[in-house]
Specification:
Layout lengths: L5 H11 L4 H8 L3 H8 L9 H15 L3 H19 L14 H35 L8 H5 L28
């Protein structure tokens, strides 16, 4: 004699209590197509395991079963299916795992992005530091401006050079 499946068990218990599938759908807010798939043991048509457990719990509570027992029964059935099929997991339509190849590509993309951000930070830090040390960037704070805040320091000092004959060869700076 074969062991009764979870879907068959849920259907039998629902029918014994004279509850229609429409009543379960309305009371649990689970779509009728999902309930039909559950009763037919078509778990691969359902979303991932966490949703299936939630649906199973709601269904069991609504028809008056102990939810923990029903979830345990679901887990046992899934383990039997996995062992029978020799696969890693039966997760459903939306719970498929990312293949190993895609995980490597994603890891490579993350690594390249991290390197680009790191090199960008290093470049900007290095160019700022180098510019500051060579005098290309000068602080706008002078000793006089610290005490006298009424007049900010000039941004650019303009030197007037008198125009005349042979002023460019003169050894004295203009006054």
């Amino acid at each position: 004699m074969s062991k009764e499946t979870l879907g068959g068990y849920l259907r039998r218990e629902r029918e014994l209590r004279h509850i229609t599938l429409e009543e379960v759908a309305e009371g649990t807010k689970i779509g009728i197509h999902i309930l039909k798939a559950m009763e037919a043991d078509r778990w691969e048509e359902l979303p991932g395991k966490i949703f299936i457990k939630g649906f199973t719990k709601s269904y069991a509570e609504f028809i008056g079963l102990v939810p923990e027992d029903v979830i345990l029964r679901y887990q046992e059935q899934i383990e039997d299916l996995e062992a029978e099929r020799g696969i890693e997991s039966v997760t459903g339509r939306y719970g498929k795992k990312i293949p190993l190849f895609n995980r490597h590509i994603i890891g490579l993309i993350v690594l390249i992005f991290t390197l680009i951000v790191g090199l960008g930070c290093w470049f900007f830090y290095h160019s700022y530091k180098t510019g500051y040390e060579t005098g290309a960037v000068t602080p706008a704070v002078g000793n006089s401006s610290l005490h006298n805040r009424s007049h900010p320091p000039p941004l650019l000092k303009i030197i007037e050079v008198p125009r005349g004959k042979n002023n460019h060869n003169s050894s004295h700076p203009p006054e």
